[in-house]
């Protein structure tokens, strides 16, 4: 895939979801990549061509580039520092207890790398961080690195959508270069020469603006989702239909349909933590208007989960205690095995905590879900999950669930009750098969 584009020797620090995806796709561009992680088992698995998470298309590309010798793995910071001209920081920035971003991993990575940087190089952050972090890290690196001012620093935020991460890496919607020198721009243009040539826009800006691009994008997307879910509450209150409302709104080109999908709201490893981290940051900056708005965005999102439980409870007559509940989907979105802050899994837990026996099916996320909620029953098929159920909950909109035959599913349940928490099932088809159908955003 590299053609006649420049080849850069680079390292990727952190071989989790972001880091491994970035390393694989950089190797696919023809660069020589050394990926580092402190987890020796993760490194060994990746070096053997095994991705430790589900992402469509990633594992075959991983094996291809490992076999071609373009992608190698290590646990040694000294080896990484000696190998790369460009070093990408791709470690996690999880949510701390107070809602802020926990930056301990990225500071630890910088502190481990810097003492080994003996010649000119470029360190590039990709992780999502509060504004001001890049500048602080740049100072920290130069103070510790033998190369001193020869170490340049840049910020190049990621915009990966889980389930589409390979596509988003190979042909990004935009490539943001947060830089302090022309040399940094030139190096990053070499790194991304292929997607730039294929039409991805390259946007050059300062470090602080680059940091804000990712968090403001996620805050805006979360706000759209919470807005339409607040409108779903209105629809339920007045007897309107949120699906028809969305169709009408999306015809307006100023609004569009993207991220205007009512249902259980947002989850996963990015949007919830980024909204809360950005809220905390704006509070610290004294921007109370934005902090208040983001707090309400989060609150609306969490109310979606409570409302799903309410509908399940209403479907079985007012109490879930002793009921059997069949669940379709626990991943936070289709195309992923990620259950971090999954609204679907959260609803399962809430229902189980009310005394229901919960049976779950998901095409790829059950192993991860079981590590967090081992009390739930995990089954090999949607039919098995629904067997004996007093109510079936459609929680993650996998395509295979949309195509389920309601007549066949009706033969195994105790009662034909279904709650569509993603607003995508064909209601008339299910009602024609004798099901009572409840949908978030519809009375």
Structural summary, described in words:
The chain is an alpha/beta fold and 443 residues long. It folds into two domains: 199 residues, Rossmann fold (3-Layer(aba) Sandwich); 230 residues, NAD(P)-binding Rossmann-like Domain (Rossmann fold). Helix content is 46%, strand content 14%. The chain contains 19 helices and 14 strands. It has a six-stranded parallel β-sheet with strand order 3-2-1-4-5-6, with helices on both faces. A six-stranded parallel β-sheet has the order 11-10-9-12-13-14. Helix 1 packs across helix 3. The longest helix is centred in the middle third of the chain and has 32 residues. It is elongated, with a radius of gyration of 24 Å.
Short structural summary:
The chain is of the alpha/beta class and 443 residues long. It is built from 19 helices and 14 strands. α6 links the parallel β5 (121-125) and β6 (151-155).
CATH architecture of the largest domain: 3-Layer(aba) Sandwich
Amount of beta strand: 5-15%
Q: What's the overall average pLDDT, rounded?
A: 96
Q: What is the CATH superfamily label of the largest domain?
A: NAD(P)-binding Rossmann-like Domain
- Alpha-beta classification: alpha/beta
Helix content bin: 40-55%
What distance separates the N and C termini? 52 Å
Q: Please give the count of helices.
A: 19
Spatially, the strands of the biggest sheet line up as 3-2-1-4-5-6
- The general outline is elongated
- The poorly predicted ranges are none
CATH third-tier fold name of the largest domain = Rossmann fold
- Rg, Cα atoms, Å: 24 Å
The structural domain count equals: 2
The biggest sheet amounts to: 6 strands, parallel
**Structure summary, number of beta strands:** 14
CATH class bucket of the largest domain: Alpha Beta
